[in-house]
């Protein structure tokens, strides 16, 4: 995984914070249009203030990150966390990456590392209250699947750094240690994400909408081990891509929330894993 803070410090000894990412294949003007506005920093990861296509300004706001970024530790394979009390805080960033305020959770609405790697926190504030206090609007989760070749930007609120590249393709299954993820986004090599970027929103440069959540990469070329995910095709063929990073798609999430940003895993079309 693109590890939380403690492990990230070890990673930085090898990668170096000051090393610029490789030049992206995406057109520069489109990439520059993506800012830090609406992203958040966690104690150990990155994240974003997000809304669903049907969310209202009066709804309690949501923050999205990775399941492996939970304050309670990594969920086990097969574990799904639903409506668990939380008072976690998040640093809210403006367009330039300056922290302008602090958001606070009331609960973990949903989190898992099974099939996907996502956490969604419900906040004590509504979108309208956040906008009134700091002038920041949420990012919108796209409810359609991205396509190969899409120009994207990974926006890390933790490091206040962006990574521009393209969707290279999709891994039928991505296996890392005890966890397996489905239909994962594979980046082109320009997105050299590092520890601490876990949970960053992956933004479609053309629409400004979130299409995935950044979560892992193969660091050492090892096969299917922690921090070295491997791709497994439908026929069982295993492929290792050293130095390549991945994200988990988020288009499935809106179908699992109803009126008032309320989680409802029983809704028609909801395919997220259930407890």
Mind summarizing the main beta sheet? 6 strands, antiparallel, barrel
Average residue-wise pLDDT: 91
- Poorly predicted residue ranges: 6-32
Shape: globular
Element pattern in H and E: HHEEEEEEEHEEEEEEEEEEE
Integer-rounded radius of gyration = 17 Å
| Strand order in the largest sheet | 1-2-3-7-6-5
Q: Which architecture of the largest domain would the CATH scheme give at its second level? A: Beta Barrel
Q: Structural class of the secondary structure composition? A: mainly beta
What's the gist of this structure?
Helices cover about 10% and strands about 40% of the residues. It has three helices and 18 strands.
Describe this structure in words.
With 275 residues, the chain is mainly beta. The protein folds into two domains: 5-35 and 142-249, Trypsin-like serine proteases (Thrombin, subunit H); 39-140 and 256-263, Thrombin, subunit H, CATH 2.40.10. Helices cover 9% and strands 39% of the residues. It has helices at residues 5-15, 28-32, 127-134; strands at residues 39-41, 46-51, 60-65, 80-85, 89-93, 99-112, 118-126, 139-140, 151-156, 161-176, 179-187, 201-204, 210-217, 230-232, 238-239, 245-249, 257-258, 262-263. The protein has a six-stranded antiparallel barrel. Strands 9-10-11-16-13-12 form a six-stranded antiparallel beta barrel. A hairpin with a 4-residue loop joins β1 and β2 (46-51). The longest helix is centred in the N-terminal third of the chain and has 11 residues, at 5-15. The two termini are 23 Å apart.
């Amino acid at each position: 995984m693109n590890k939380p803070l403690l492990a990230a410090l070890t990673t930085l000894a090898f990668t170096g914070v000051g090393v610029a990412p490789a030049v992206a294949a995406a057109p520069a003007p489109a990439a520059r249009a993506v800012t830090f506005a609406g992203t958040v920093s966690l104690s150990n990861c990155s994240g974003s203030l997000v809304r669903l296509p049907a969310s209202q300004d009066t709804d309690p706001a949501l923050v999205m990150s990775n399941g492996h970024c939970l304050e309670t530790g990594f969920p086990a394979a097969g574990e799904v966390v639903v409506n668990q009390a939380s008072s976690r805080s998040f640093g809210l960033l403006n367009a330039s990456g300056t922290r302008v305020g602090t958001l606070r959770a009331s609960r973990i609405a949903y989190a898992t590392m099974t099939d996907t790697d996502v956490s969604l926190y419900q906040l004590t504030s509504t979108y309208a209250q956040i906008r009134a206090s700091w002038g920041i609007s949420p990012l919108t989760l796209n409810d359609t699947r991205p396509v190969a070749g899409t120009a994207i930007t990974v926006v890390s609120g933790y490091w206040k750094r962006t990574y521009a590249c393209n969707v290279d393709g999709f891994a039928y299954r991505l296996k890392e240690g005890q966890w397996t993820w489905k239909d994962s986004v594979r980046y082109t090599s320009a997105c050299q994400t590092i520890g601490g970027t876990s949970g960053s929103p992956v933004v479609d440069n053309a629409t400004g909408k979130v299409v995935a959540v950044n979560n892992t990469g193969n660091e050492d070329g090892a096969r299917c081990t922690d921090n070295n995910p491997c791709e497994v095709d439908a026929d069982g063929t295993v492929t290792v891509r050293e130095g390549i990073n991945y994200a988990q798609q988020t288009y499935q999430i809106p179908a699992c929330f109803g009126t008032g940003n309320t989680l409802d895993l029983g809704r028609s079309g909801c395919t997220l894993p259930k407890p």
